[in-house]
Amino acid sequence: MSPDPEIPLAKVRDAALALPSTTEKPSHGSPGFFVEGGAAFAYFWHDHHGDGETVAIVKTTGLDEQQMLIEGDPAFYYAPPYLGPSGWVAMRLDGEDMDWDRVADRIAISGELAAPRRLLEAGGR
Q1: How far apart are CA 42 and CA 30, in angstroms?
Q2: How many Å is the maximal CA-CA distance in the chain?
Q3: By Cβ atoms counted within 10 A, which residue in 4, 11, 18, 63 is the most buried?
Q4: Gap between the Cα atoms of 21 and 111, Å rounded
Q5: CA-CA distance, 5 to 47, in Å (whole number)?
């Protein structure tokens, strides 16, 4: 768990809000990021229900992609409670050599999965 959640939250926020037509609002007590039309594409959780994790949670294309990501890097990815059964994946944000470009890329992919076609046709990221 990150001792200071403001640092990883700022990086997640920057990546999410850099996407077109996105907003941040609280969702169940944690920061959530939404694309135009209200579709969620990312959440930031810090010590959610005392789990000791600082994570960004993002959409995937489904359970197959979620499983592939987790199997490929189980120290970084895991299936989060509540959202995991729908194919979302959590990224642990407290590694010593955190690759923030990797995190931002997954946030952008998630944003594209949630975005209305009109936004994607306008050019996306």
Answers
A1: 11
A2: 41
A3: 11
A4: 10
A5: 9
Mean pLDDT value across residues 98-123: 89
Summarize pLDDT for 12-22 with one digit per residue, the tens.
999 999 999 99
Tell me which residue has tokens 């994946």: 89
Estimate to the nearest angstrom the gap between the alpha carbon of 76 and the chain centroid.
12
Distances, alpha carbon 101 to alpha carbons 9, 46, 67, 83, 119, in Å: 14, 20, 21, 23, 23
- How many domains, in total, are found in the chain? 1
State the Cα–Cα distance between residues 86 and 92, nearest whole angstrom: 19
Which residue(s) pair with 76 in the sheet? none
The answer to whether 39 and 47 have CB atoms below 8 angstroms apart is: no
- 41: Cα separation from own chain's centroid: 7
Residue 64 lies in domain: 6-119
Judge whether 124 lies within some domain: no
